[in-house]
Amino acid sequence: MKTLYGIAILAGTIIGAGLFSLPYITSVVGIQVILGYLFVLGIVSVLVHYFLGEISLKTPDYLRLPGFAKYHLGKKAQKVAYVSGILGMMGAILAYIILGGEFLHALFSPVFGGDITAYTTVYFAVSALIIFFGISAVSKVEFWGIIVFIVFLLLTFIRGFEDISINNLFFIREGAFDFFLPYGAILFALWGGALIPEIEEALGTKKDKKKLRTIIPAGIIFSIIISIFFIVIVLGITGEYTTKDALVGLENYLGNSITSLMLGFGLVVIFTSLITIGLTVKKILWYDLKLSKNISWALACFIPFLFFLVGVKDFIVVIGIVGATMIAVDAVLILLMYEKVKSKKVRLITYPLIFMFLIGIIYEVVYFFS
Questions:
Q1: Which percentage of the chain shows pLDDT scores above 90?
Q2: At what angle are helices 256-283 and 293-309 packed, to 10 degrees?
Q3: Are 322 and 184 in contact (CB under 8 A)?
Q4: pLDDT score at 346
Q5: What sign does the dihedral 26-32-34-35 (CA atoms) show?
Q6: Residue 310, SS3?
Q7: CA 43 to mean position of chain CA atoms
Q8: Strand, helix or coil for residue 182
Q9: Are 38 and 224 in contact (CB under 8 A)?
Q10: Can you spell out the DSSP letters for 120-185?
Q11: 191 phi and psi, to 5 degrees?
């Protein structure tokens, strides 16, 4: 049971905002390219998470990635881990704010009217208040929200099966092809590194902790299967009318009721994730970096929202940047730590992966500023 629970927790954490980007991205690059990316980056994700699990098993409990980095690589690596972790989580918060506002607008604007900025502001304000008061219990809804969302995904498949077209699955937007587009988004969509130390601690005994070696690949593979299933459902139904948030485009095909339910549970999933990440950033700034409680809260919440206000409103771009840069930096640190934990023999695996991540970081930075 501990193994199944661990798999469910890891998969439940991974399945989030990144999932909603995949149908649209598939419509840009094609189903063959996205499946290739999921296969290759799926293997990479399994390896990096597995290595993090091995590091966690060989490191004292109650530490997280910055603590691991300090323990194995020194204080400079810890500082890098803090920067990549905080910026990466703030980027994720921004993505959740953008996507949450879109879902809220789609749900309530037909009744109350109003533009998307107003709904995003309301969504942000409620989230910020919960983070301020530290109501962490809302994050416990996340797991069950994802379970219910997957159930409704199955119901959507049943309801929309006749509307799924093979031609839609092979649709590619004319003039929009961008081979590199899936890279950062899929890294983001398959990342659950923050949960590995927590799962390892929760397993308890030394014998049970070894189950982490089964939990990690199983949890990631399950997440990939759900991702492919989601792409087939949404793109197969909506084709060229697939929206960037995936769900809004379903309304013309499945009706308002089913789409509203999907939007509602999707909103719960990303809202609880936003609260969890927001509280984590606040605590890092407060406890680890010794800023005041209120300043920590303000930085954690308002910096991402300010980026939204100045015009950063494409959540696919945001998760692509976070995945290709900040998550990549975390992955490089994990690979360097794994080499310390094991031996120099693992360089045949770690060095090519480090090279891949570094090239990805450079390309993303150049691509973004160009």
A1: 64
A2: 140
A3: yes
A4: 92
A5: positive
A6: coil
A7: 17
A8: helix
A9: yes
A10: HHHHHHHHHHHHHHT-GGGGGHHHHHHHHHHHHHHHHHHHHGGG--HHHHT---TT---TTHHHHH
A11: -95, 125
Per-residue tokens: 266: 């999707």
Q: Rounded CA gap, 298 and 316, in Å?
A: 25
The answer to whether the beta carbons of residues 9 and 143 sit under 8 Å apart is yes
Tokens of 34: 């996205």
If we measure between CA atoms, which residue out of 252, 251, 253 comes closest to residue 261? 251
Angle at 325 between CA 307 and CA 346, to 5 degrees: 160
Residues 285-320 have pLDDT tens digits of 998 899 999 999 999 999 999 999 999 999 999 999
Tokens 């799924």 label which residue? 164
Distance separating alpha carbons of residues 333 and 335, to the nearest angstrom: 5
pLDDT reading at 348 higher than 90: yes
If you search the block for the tokens 């996205």, which residue do you land on? Answer: 34
| Separation between Cα atoms, residue 80 and residue 66, nearest integer Å | 8
d(CA 230, CA 234): 6
First vs last C-alpha separation in the chain: 50
Q: Which two tokens stand for residue 271?
A: 């809202």
pTM higher than 0.85, yes or no? yes
Q: Which of 93, 257, 231 has its CA nearest to residue 170?
A: 231
Half-sphere exposure of residue 16: CA atoms within 13 angstroms, side-chain side: 30
Q: What is the pLDDT of residue 195?
A: 82
Going from the N-terminus, what domains does the chain have, and what CATH number goes with each? Answer: 2-369 (1.20.1740.10)
Q: What angle do CA 141, 238, 118 make, to 5 degrees?
A: 55
Q: Which tokens in the block code for residue 156?
A: 């959507």
50-89 tens-digit pLDDT:
999 999 988 887 788 999 999 999 999 999 999 999 999 9
Cβ–Cβ under 8 Å, residues 66 and 288: yes
> Who contacts 93 (Cβ-Cβ below 8 Å, separation ≥6)?
274, 277, 278, 281, 300, 301, 304
DSSP string over 342-363: S-GGGHHHHHHHHHHHHHHHHH
CB 233 within 8 A of CB 156: yes
